[in-house]
């Protein structure tokens, strides 16, 4: 890895599976090198997959197969800006339909426990509208949604 800043994501032996899914699902994503442990470690043996280099939407990541000690939480999430409903649906459904879990306000969690915000640009524009009443209507509409419905957000924004 050549990046000065890389996200290190902890997995319980499934870093390569996760990286492969991300590379298949998101543009500008790929699996790089897989590094094997040079010796035994608390959750594995010499020769096991220890780390996986990958990128998600151009962001360099390192998947560490560290074992079951630590779990992902909503305190960290990938926020993905989508351009239209088709892209929003495709990404949301890919995550949820692959063993993930739907949540609220555009959030979902993948099967490895990582949180994702699938956020249409239209939503960001609506809730930051200089017309505070329009922004509030869009925000209130968002608060009732799981996956974001762009048409409903735009309708709420218009009043």
From TrEMBL:
It comes from the Bacteria. InterPro entries: 3_dmu_93_MTrfase, Glyas_Bleomycin-R_OHBP_Dase, PhnB-like. Residues 4-119 form the PhnB-like domain. SUPFAM superfamilies: Glyoxalase/Bleomycin resistance protein/Dihydroxybiphenyl dioxygenase (SSF54593). It holds the Pfam family 3-dmu-9_3-mt. PANTHER family: PHNB-LIKE DOMAIN-CONTAINING PROTEIN, PROTEIN YJDN-RELATED. This is VOC family protein.
